[in-house]
TrEMBL record:
<comment type="pathway">
    <text>Porphyrin-containing compound metabolism; protoheme biosynthesis.</text>
</comment>
<feature type="binding site">
    <location>
        <position position="59"/>
    </location>
    <ligand>
        <name>Fe-coproporphyrin III</name>
    </ligand>
</feature>
<comment type="similarity">
    <text>Belongs to the ferrochelatase family.</text>
</comment>
<keyword id="KW-0627">Porphyrin biosynthesis</keyword>
<dbReference type="GO" id="GO:0016829">
    <property type="term" value="F:lyase activity"/>
</dbReference>
<feature type="binding site">
    <location>
        <position position="128"/>
    </location>
    <ligand>
        <name>Fe-coproporphyrin III</name>
    </ligand>
</feature>
<dbReference type="InterPro" id="IPR033644">
    <property type="entry name" value="Ferrochelatase_C"/>
</dbReference>
<keyword id="KW-0350">Heme biosynthesis</keyword>
<keyword id="KW-0963">Cytoplasm</keyword>
<protein>
    <recommendedName>
        <fullName>Coproporphyrin III ferrochelatase</fullName>
        <ecNumber>4.99.1.9</ecNumber>
    </recommendedName>
</protein>
<dbReference type="InterPro" id="IPR001015">
    <property type="entry name" value="Ferrochelatase"/>
</dbReference>
<dbReference type="Pfam" id="PF00762">
    <property type="entry name" value="Ferrochelatase"/>
</dbReference>
<dbReference type="InterPro" id="IPR033659">
    <property type="entry name" value="Ferrochelatase_N"/>
</dbReference>
<keyword id="KW-0408">Iron</keyword>
<feature type="binding site">
    <location>
        <position position="286"/>
    </location>
    <ligand>
        <name>Fe(2+)</name>
    </ligand>
</feature>
<keyword id="KW-0479">Metal-binding</keyword>
<keyword id="KW-0456">Lyase</keyword>
Length: 375
């Protein structure tokens, strides 16, 4: 018999993700869901639609979440953690509101949320919390008794998130031609966001100084690069760069873009680059198109050997990390001691997003944080 782990007071875990289209007819309605009220230029939308059509209108993200769901259920069962796991998305079926309704109908009263986004930022945290608030409002409108919803802390520096990425980079280096391997640089990539959003990310107003998005990514990049050096005995120079920029051209977003970075490295005489998408939890469309298709084609034109390393996806170590986070948060909620696990210098993230954390452009209600209008 495995030890029995205690998730009290929680009675369910909700895997909350982005969602993606599952066929050509889904692409346009999916993009409308994503960009409603977000001010994305029409041209950009057409372009992004083409990325999906290139892959038959199917994003890999939903299958990746199905695999993660399986990995979580298997890990929980093997470790005596009796906690049902549900799955809902912000932008495509199964929709968050439908999943939350199902959970309420099943009698779930205390729900813990795992978002497939490891870092602080409006897009990676508060926007998920706004969607939770919208879903709760919808259920309230249906006359349902609302459950209490909490969100797991940011896990960017949890070993179960970092270590699979180290393996990925080591494997990608090994795939490079031997004569360029030792001189290879590492390009850690993440989603570009508006600099205004990056500057205010994380707790602000006396609880930190903003800038958490970049700071957290730099820390993960450093941790991965150091572990790679320990494993390979080679110190590969690295830089944090950005991908998947969207929005209007006159609004500043985080730079440099991965394609410009590859050109710059090539011009500087760097013999090869490993692109490591540390900003993402799975190899979804931003990875498949922006790195494997676009950036890889640019590298080929330059004659620069590149490889792209894997994200954590459904790695059993990531599932174990989620179990660890669930057990930790449950203990905290019971008023017991917990020993939050985190690598590196930043320490474990806050358990509950404080008031004003990762502010939005517009004032909208957000659940599962200190400024939630829900209990
Ligand atoms: C920080 C961040 C993450 C990482 C955290 C997380 O994972 O949540 C992320 C993930 C994802 N982004 C995704 C897809 C899209 N993101 C878009 C647009 C935007 N993303 C933004 C940021 C982020 N995005 C921002 C600031 C915008 C501008 C519009 C706005 O301010 O809201 C658009 C609109 C078209 C475009 O402009 O690109 C699409 C289609 C998919 C699904 C991929 C698939 O289908 O496999 C995933 C996982
Ligand atoms: Fe995005």
């Amino acid at each position: 018999m495995p030890d029995v782990l205690d998730a009290t007071p929680y009675d369910a875990l909700l895997l909350l993700s982005f969602g993606g289209p599952e066929g050509p007819e889904d692409v346009v309605p999916f993009l409308e869901n994503v960009t409603r009220g977000r001010g994305i230029p029409k041209e950009r939308l057409k372009e992004v639609g083409q990325h999906y059509f290139l892959f038959g209108g199917v994003s890999p993200i939903n299958d990746q979440n199905r695999a993660l769901l399986e990995a979580l259920r298997k890990d929980f069962a093997e470790h005596g953690l009796d906690l049902p796991v549900y799955w809902g998305n912000r932008n495509w079926a199964p929709y968050l509101t439908d999943t939350l309704r199902e959970m309420v109908v099943d009698g779930r009263r205390r729900i813990l949320v795992l978002a497939t986004s490891a870092y602080a930022s409006y897009s990676g945290c508060r926007q998920y919390r706004e969607n939770l608030a919208d879903a709760l409002a919808a259920l309230q409108g249906e006359g349902l008794e609302l459950p209490r919803v909490d969100k797991l802390r940011h896990y960017f520096n949890h070993p179960g998130f970092v270590e699979p990425m180290v393996d990925g980079v080591v494997a990608s280096l090994a795939e490079l031609p031997e004569d360029v391997r030792e001189g290879a640089h590492l390009a850690f990539t993440t989603h570009s966001i508006p600099t205004a959003s990056a500057d205010t990310s994380g707790p602000v107003a006396g609880h930190g100084d903003g800038g958490a998005y970049v700071r957290q990514h730099l820390e993960v990049a450093r941790l991965v690069a150091e572990a790679v050096r320990e494993r390979t005995g080679v110190e590969h120079p690295w830089q944090l760069v950005y991908q998947s920029r969207s929005g209007a051209a006159h609004i500043p977003w985080l730079e440099p873009d991965i394609c410009d970075h590859l050109e710059e490295r090539h011009a500087a005489g760097v013999p090869a680059v490993v692109m490591a998408p540390i900003g993402f939890v799975s190899d979804h469309m931003e990875v498949l198109y922006d790195l494997d298709t676009e950036a890889t084609a640019r590298a080929r034109e330059l004659g620069l050997p590149v490889r792209r390393s894997a994200t954590v996806g459904a790695d059993p170590r990531f599932a174990a990390a989620v179990r660890d986070l669930v057990v930790e948060r449950s203990a905290v909620e019971r008023g017991q001691d917990a020993t939050p696990c985190a690598l590196g210098a930043l320490g474990p993230s806050h358990q509950v997003c404080p008031v004003g954390c990762c502010p939005a452009r517009a004032d909208r209600p957000a659940a599962a944080g200190a400024d939630s209008p829900y209990a």
